[in-house]
Every structure is written in C-alpha cells, then in structure tokens.
Amino acid sequence: MHNTDLEHNLELTRLCQDILASNDRIYFVSTVNRNGKSTESKFRNDRIIKNMTLQEIEMLYMQRVLQSFLNKEFDDVLGSLDFITVQRETLLEFIFPFSDGIVLVIADLDVISRYLAKTISFLIRDFEFRLKDSLYA
C-alpha cells in the first residue's frame, strides 16, 4: 500500500468518524466505492446491519451506488445531486455522492433531515478539500 493510499484510508476513517460524531441519532456510516464495495464503516448501533445477510448488505450497497449514479445523469438538466433521502418505517437513509462513490448514512427518524444533510454535506466537502489539498502538496 502506498503512503497516499494509507493517508486516503485514514481520511475515509476520519470522515466516517466525523459524520457519526455529528449527531447521536446516526446509527451507521459507510463509504462505498463505485463498484458497490464498502471501503469504511462506522457503527453506533449495528441493529440494522446485523439483521442482514452479507449478500443483502452487498445488494444494498450496490443498489445505493446505482441509484446515486442514475440520478447524477440529470445533473446537467436539473442541477447537481446533493443527496438522496430514503424514509422507511423505522429509519432514514441518506445517500451522498462523493469522489470515491457514495457515503451511506442511516439515522433515526426523529432527526431534522435537512439540517443533518447539510451538516454531512459540509463534512464531505471538507474531506474532498483535504484530499485535493494532499494531492497537490
């Protein structure tokens, strides 16, 4: 592993930790690459994921990546995609596109979704800035 790969992985870990720390109602954060594979995950409460098989988790990741990329097809016409929110009976999912793929966040229903999304978007932009800054350093 190259030093830049190690630094990148540390930054992904930091991103997930920062998102998880931003709100105590966030249960789960995962970065997922363009191939639908999780590159980093952090849990506060793994009750959602532990009830799923490995195949179901892989399908969830792949579906979320595809959903994000299909939505980005309309960026030129409708404006760039900031995030996708999926509200379920028991939780909220947030899908944020970023340079490596997506960030998937699972949170409690009682969060203020717009505020939380803006907070997470800021953390992702900060990650992207640090990443770009380290490439040119």
Please give the largest β-sheet.
5 strands, antiparallel
Give the full name of the CATH homologous superfamily. Dynein light chain 2a, cytoplasmic
Helical content, roughly? Answer: 40-55%
Low-confidence stretches: none
Q: State the helix count.
A: 4
Strand content: 15-25%
Outline: globular
Biggest sheet: strand arrangement: 2-1-5-4-3
What's the CATH topology label? Beta-Lactamase
What is the CATH architecture assignment?
2-Layer Sandwich
Q: Structural class, from helix and strand content? A: alpha+beta
> How many distinct domains?
1
Question: Which key features would you list for this structure?
Answer:
137 residues; alpha+beta; Beta-Lactamase; globular; 5 strands
Quick structural summary:
This protein is an alpha+beta fold and about 140 residues long. Helix content is about 50%, strand content about 25%. The chain contains four helices and five strands.
General description of the model:
It is a single chain. The protein is of the alpha+beta class and 137 residues long. It has a single domain (3-129), classed as Beta-Lactamase (2-Layer Sandwich). It contains 4 helices and 5 strands. It has helices at residues 3-22, 54-72, 75-78, 113-135; strands spanning 26-33, 38-43, 84-87, 92-98, 101-107. A 5-stranded antiparallel sheet has the order 2-1-5-4-3, sandwiched between helices. Strand 1 (26-33) and strand 2 form a beta hairpin.
